[in-house]
Amino acid sequence: MNDSEQRQTLLQLCGQVCAKGLVCGSGGNISVRCDGDILITPTGRNLGALSEDDVVRMRPDGSVYGGGVPSRERRMHCRCYVRADVACAVHVHSTYATALSCLPLDPLCAVPVYTPGYAISVGKLPVLPYLRPGSKELADMAGEVLAGRNSVLLAKHGVLTVGNNTEHALNIAEEIEENARIFFILAGRGAGLTEEQQAELQRG
User: How many domains does the chain have?
Assistant: First the structure.
């Protein structure tokens, strides 16, 4: 796709994220790969109110080509694209996942794995400690985790997912939000899938 087509792809994803209630106000940020560069949403803007001209094009090192101010999380997004298979990165402050991220959690597995879909697309979701949004420390830690998986929970902050296309990255974010919602509905009364059940699903 050319630059304009990729901008439209990004804007369509922004609209989906808003329609599904995964962000509010000016929260969240999204990016897509574009001919070796990165297109990213601007800072301080509602994702549902953007036009093509609002989208910021930047190089893999985070430097910007022209006008526009990219999301403050641009470092974190740049780290996502170190992987050649990543075409999209989605960072949302979805309600249940963010509420989950405010609890004391096992850093290796934030929440029980309740459903087969979640087991396959997410599995054991790791949690990063709270780090200042936009900081190099957060970008580095998120990049290390995402070198080997497609999602991570950010303490008191939200969710970061990556995918080989926009649908893939969005689906993972939705699975995490739904699994977190189930966690709160159950309020400790239910059990997740066993290790054996999860392993069986991964084997196909």
Answer: 1
Q: What is the pLDDT of residues 102-144, one digit of tens each?
A: 999 999 999 999 999 999 999 999 999 999 999 999 999 999 9
| DSSP type of residue 156 | T
Task: Please give the residue range of the domain that contains residue 13.
Answer: 3-203
Condensed to tens digits (0 to 9), the pLDDT of residues 164-202 reads 999 999 999 999 999 999 999 999 898 899 999 999 998
Measured distance CA(185)–CA(179) in Å, rounded: 10
CATH code for the domain of 62: 3.40.225.10
d(CA 163, CA 142): 15
Written as one string, the DSSP assignment of 24-49 is: -TT--EEEEEETTEEEEPBTT--GGG
As a whole number of angstroms, the distance between CA 107 and CA 129 comes to 8
Catalytic residues: 73
How many angstroms separate the first and last alpha carbons of the chain? 33
